[in-house]
Design brief:
The protein is built from five helices and no strands. With about 80 residues, the protein is an all-alpha fold. It is globular and about 40 Å long.
């Protein structure tokens, strides 16, 4: 991909693309049925996005991923983030 493309994303989001790629690589073999792993991923994403995640929201996301066997997609996460109280 074009390096300018990534620079443009970094400008708009404030997130370093290297950090995104590092996170993506670490998720390739992650066990999403393990609560500790899922909580770690949530915290890392929140840190990268510079968005606080309440304990309640974290618990909801963990439950959704582990217990409800929902697929992990941006729409599901977006709905959870937009419905936070």
């Amino acid at each position: 991909m074009d390096n300018g493309f990534f620079k443009n994303i970094e400008k708009k989001t404030g997130v370093n693309m290297k950090d995104i790629f590092d996170l993506a690589n670490s998720l390739q073999n992650a066990n999403f049925k393990d609560e500790k792993t899922v909580r770690g991923v949530i915290k890392k994403v929140a840190q990268l996005a510079n968005k606080p995640v309440s304990k309640e929201l974290e618990d909801q996301i963990v439950k959704s991923i582990i217990q409800d066997s929902k697929s992990i997609d941006f729409n599901t996460i977006n709905k959870m983030l937009n419905n936070k109280k």
